[in-house]
Amino acid sequence: MHDSSLLNRVTASGQRILLQISWSVDMDTCLDPVVFSMEMAVAIQARDAGAPSRFASMFSSTKRLAMTSAIFSLKLTPPLTRSANDLWRLDTSEKCVRGEEALGPWRPRGISVVEDYERLVATEKRSADVQAIKVILASSPPQPYSGGRPQEDILRDTLALWQKKFGHRGQIVLSQEPDEGDVIPAPALEPLVPLKLVAQTKLVPRSDMSTKAGYLLLLTHAGENTWQKLWFVPRRPHLYIYSHSNELEEVGVISLTGVKVESSVDMVALLGKPHPFTLFTSSNSHVFSAPNEKELHAWISKLDPIRIPNP
Hints:
The protein has 311 residues and is an alpha+beta fold. 20% of the residues lie in helices and 24% in strands.
């Protein structure tokens, strides 16, 4: 139901009605319902208005859509904490980063880098202190002792001075894992309540620019070796899938963030299709078949531009 007069009458030619559509989704892991919102431009036509002819649609700058879709990014964060025990750290060591295959076997280090740096700084400081004392001793040649104190007492005081520590005596211990002693156990009688997250949604804008588009065969059922011919259009950071080349019926979207593309001769015998390649994402893998060798290399270069070709 609505209370807008603009939606109760026919829209004038060349005009559109801008609607803001909002809806919410209840999630068990969130504090509040997740709210989605987007704007949509529509035109109200008369009841007897027919669909435009195909010839007129070819020269029209607008498309008549029976449905529309949108992509939202959902960000889940813990609520603001008031105690140090509620803090948590996100482990990104296993997250795929584009181009990391060019680094070979190298992997980033953890807390040990900080510990090695502290040891290096301490060693260089001691070495600099020794060199400074050498300069002082070289500038004043030794002289015969003429004092009244016994030399053994002077030697004992000197050794005690060398062994004395100045400044902060504590040591900051860095650990990759939290200390078990710092964790305060919950009372046994109270049930463990899972942490509720705060959701933030953002509409991902869709770019109309694409450097590649074409038909590919998509493996839809590996057990039955079922393939489907679909129209694919890469628009970073997503790969849009349509039923036909007119791009009116969208059937799927694949995220191209951190993807890897693999292609080998062994896949031809395994799949029984020529020119196959596999697209690996952070959550799934997709198998395609290109129409020819030229299209195979073109799609691989567009989907994974920094991929190192196989020798």
